[in-house]
Amino acid sequence: MDVNRNWPLTNTGEVRRLLAEYGLKPRKSLGQNFLVAAGVLDKILEAAEVEKDEVVIEIGPGVGALTRRLAEKGARVAAVEIDGRLIPLLKEVLGDLGDRVRLINADALKVDYGALLAEMGAGSFKVVANLPYYITSPFVAGFLEAGYRFERMVLMVQKEVADRMTAANGTESYGALSVLVAYHTEADVVWRVSRHCFYPPPAVDSAVVRLMRRPAPAVTVLQPELFFRIVRASFGRRRKMLPNALAGAVPGLDRETWVQIIESAGIDPRVRGETLTPDQFGLIADACVRLGYGAPSVL
């Protein structure tokens, strides 16, 4: 097979032919919907602002369309692909790029990115990916919670997840993921993407989101672990008033105690968690600590 830079990896017929040559079919269980829209790739690269020799982590390279474009921009790409069937195909498609592309056959949720980045000599880095839908939330949450010092993440995700990641308080899409993303990053939707831009087309539309890592968290709190425990509990029972939702979130704290904590934070205890801003969650978490309920033993 002739591999060259103009190889049409965003042509649906070519992708079908390529997969057939390797005896492959997309696996729904792995969320394999390959991006076949060159214009959308352009938008992703524009948002990523890839610079020569910087490290980019890509999750789910598929047939290598985005991988090639990133490497051709000068990036050093670590492409993590869980499907071992695709590795021979990717090695052929990307073979002319040499050491600019490093293929890693692994589950993206289990990779030690700290070790990988150290091996690649990366300080700051970027994550650019067409994420398989089924790992989007756990990957983004895990990556943010791990504290990796990425410069930005540019991700293709399910439209519903993009809405959740960028939602403001008081909206239907607002949830624990919204607060986590806002705490660590400034997020925006770069582009809405039709399901028809993929092969095979998924059941829903997608969006490209850009997460710019903040130099410091958006909310300064005394105990971040307690802050996020309160956030998760609030949305776990989001239709209940806040004291009821939080009852049991911290061992030993009942509804009446939460009423006291919430009032001491200057917040009406009759509110629901879905109406609170990240700053207000921070006030409640710090009030909990000030009243003596934030010791490590209750976390």
Automatic annotation (TrEMBL):
Keyword annotations for this protein, in alphabetical order, are: Cytoplasm, Methyltransferase, RNA-binding, rRNA processing, S-adenosyl-L-methionine, Transferase
Give the EC number(s) listed in the UniProt record. Answer: 2.1.1.182
Q: What class of enzyme is it?
A: transferase
> Which Gene3D superfamilies does UniProt cross-reference here?
Ribosomal RNA adenine dimethylase-like, domain 2, Vaccinia Virus protein VP39
Q: Which InterPro entries match?
A: KsgA/Erm (IPR001737), rRNA_Ade_diMease-like_C (IPR023165), rRNA_Ade_Mease_Trfase_CS (IPR020596), rRNA_Ade_methylase_Trfase_N (IPR020598), rRNA_adenine_dimethylase (IPR011530), SAM-dependent_MTases_sf (IPR029063)
Annotated localization: Cytoplasm
* Sequence ranges assigned to domain Ribosomal RNA adenine methylase transferase N-terminal in this UniProt record: 40-215
Quick one: where is this thing mainly located? Answer: cytoplasm
Q: Where does S-adenosyl-L-methionine bind?
A: N33, L35, G60, E81, D107, N130
* CDD domains recorded: AdoMet_MTases
List cellular component terms (GO).
Answer: cytosol
Q: What are this entry's molecular-function GO terms? A: 16S rRNA (adenine(1518)-N(6)/adenine(1519)-N(6))-dimethyltransferase activity; RNA binding
Give the function comment from the record. Specifically dimethylates two adjacent adenosines (A1518 and A1519) in the loop of a conserved hairpin near the 3'-end of 16S rRNA in the 30S particle. May play a critical role in biogenesis of 30S subunits.
HAMAP family given for it? 16SrRNA_methyltr_A
- Family assignment from sequence similarity: Belongs to the class I-like SAM-binding methyltransferase superfamily. rRNA adenine N(6)-methyltransferase family. RsmA subfamily.
- Identification of the protein by name: Ribosomal RNA small subunit methyltransferase A
What is the organism field in this record?
Desulforudis audaxviator (strain MP104C)
